[in-house]
Structure to design on (273 residues):
């Protein structure tokens, strides 16, 4: 539909009707972990891109601290390798079907083998390379305090901030390198799961939708896609057997959201690779 020679506000309104907002919900803790890793690494890589300023490098350090804390609670590398094995087994089972997309599944197995090889080359658990790093540990000890990472409590931090941008970048890239490898593998798994999702069009009657999950299918994630022009968002509650969606009025961000009382058409994607 042509939108030329129209007022800017009208053009933006019409474009928003075609823009879709995607809301993803992990259906188990492993996928939730991978999505957090994906989120943090995306932010970290954004902060160190395109000639970062001192403020960007500080933000990147905070994100590295979050990544370290994420990997300190459990063996993230081991969890990713286990999921690579599970997804690989599913792909090989799918290859046995008469109507299997052999080329596509072979590509999936090739990607998984690559990520597995890279992870096995990493020594020890994820984050181990920073465990005894003096500068990083000083930052970590102060990070729980509001404004704790500063130049007057940690003079070395002040010195580091004043180094040339290439020096700061080399440090950040070195400290973040194992997380980059782990994230590429975790994100690869997430993208495979996303690619093989079952899409269907649904309607939430009076702003509410409920459905069951087939027990024989290992659902990993669900996704709700809504037009950007709608003034609502989905609150998702999901268990092993069923899930519910409550579409909430987005105009009340300062207050507890109320369920919108109208039918909401949306796209539901169930991912069960």
């Amino acid at each position: 539909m042509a939108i030329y020679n129209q007022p800017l506000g009208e053009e933006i309104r019409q474009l928003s009707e075609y823009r879709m907002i995607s809301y993803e919900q992990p259906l188990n803790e492993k996928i939730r972990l991978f999505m957090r890793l994906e989120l943090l690494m995306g932010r970290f890589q954004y902060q160190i891109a395109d000639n970062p300023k001192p403020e960007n490098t500080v933000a990147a350090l905070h994100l590295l601290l979050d990544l370290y804390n994420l990997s300190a609670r459990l063996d993230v590398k081991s969890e990713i390798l286990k999921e690579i094995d599970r997804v690989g087994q599913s792909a090989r089972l799918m290859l046995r079907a008469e109507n299997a997309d052999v080329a596509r599944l072979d590509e999936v197995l090739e990607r998984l083998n690559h990520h597995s090889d890279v992870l096995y080359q990493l020594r020890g658990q994820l984050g181990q390379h920073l465990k005894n790093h003096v500068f990083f540990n000083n930052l970590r000890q102060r990070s729980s305090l509001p404004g704790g990472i500063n130049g007057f409590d940690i003079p070395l931090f002040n010195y580091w901030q004043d180094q040339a941008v290439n020096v700061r970048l080399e440090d950040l890239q070195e400290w973040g390198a194992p997380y980059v490898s782990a994230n590429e593998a975790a994100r690869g798994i997430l993208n495979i799961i996303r690619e093989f999702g079952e899409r269907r069009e649904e309607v939430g009657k009076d702003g509410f939708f409920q459905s069951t999950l087939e027990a024989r299918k290992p659902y990993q994630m669900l996704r709700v896609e809504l037009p950007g022009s709608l003034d609502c968002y989905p609150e998702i509650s999901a268990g092993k057997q069923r899930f519910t969606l409550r579409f909430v009025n987005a105009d009340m961000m300062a207050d507890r959201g109320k369920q919108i009382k109208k039918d909401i058409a949306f796209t539901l994607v169930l991912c069960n690779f």
About this structure: The chain is about 50% helix and 20% strand. The domain at 197-271 is CATH 2.60.440.10 (YacF-like). The longest helix spans residues 165-195.
